[in-house]
Amino acid sequence: MSDDDFFIGWADTPQIDRRFMMAAGLSIITGTTAVGIGVATRQRPAGSGTWNMGEVREWRGIATAEPYGMLRTLDLDGTERTALLGCQGKCGVSARIGALAGKPVIIKGSLIQRNAHAMIAVIDGLDWIREDPDGDVGTLAFPEPEPITEVTLNGEILDTKCWFGAMRPAQGKTHKSCASLCIRGGIPPAFYARDMEDQTTLMIMTSGGYGHNKDLLPFVADRVNVTGQVLRFGDLLLLDAPVSAITRL
What we know:
This protein is an alpha+beta fold and about 250 residues long. Helices cover about 15% and strands about 35% of the residues. The chain is built from 3 helices and 14 strands. It has helices spanning about 15-40, 160-165, 175-185; strands at about 50, 55-65, 70-75, 80-85, 105-115, 115-120, 130, 145-160, 190-195, 200-205, 210, 225-235, 235-240, 245-249. Strands 2-3-4-6-5 form a 5-stranded mixed beta barrel. A 5-stranded mixed barrel has the order 8-9-10-13-12. The radius of gyration is 26 Å and the shape is elongated. The relative contact order is 0.15.
């Protein structure tokens, strides 16, 4: 035992200090828990999209490459519906449709779906699409886009594949790099608008009737203002606007 009065390493902690540390510890735990719960409750839901990658099947319909790779089909719910097309990764497939555009085709892939929005993630390899010898264009021919109205909207530019169900969450700053890679790779971009009453709309973005590409990258996942024309394209809504009509808020 040391005779040094200042060496008190084995001395009991004073009662007043123990009470202080106990109270401070409980306060920190309670405070951080409350802050965590508060932050979590303020987050928007991640969405209801799903993607069962293991459920690969064949889809029949009419393919188009413009403005993006799409399949107009009865195979979603028995009515004329449009499914966007994407690869298994972060890429579009419009450039691979080639001479099969406008023809009856059979496409092999898995379904990504969020509410009324659908995308088929086609299988890897060359046999993801083939002409359907028994198919008929009939009522499945893609209609001409029908102008609805001119609009100015606030919202966010995001990629359709992730938002439909490939990723959760699929919007906002946390998803910015992923959305940028998807759009850079050819995944169709969309504009997600939310009004003052919290009503939302998702529109596929085009420019002059053609698909956007890397030109949108500076604005992806940021709050932006867009002035353009809304068009009905079968069961899809398009927002046609050049990149010059987009401003960051």
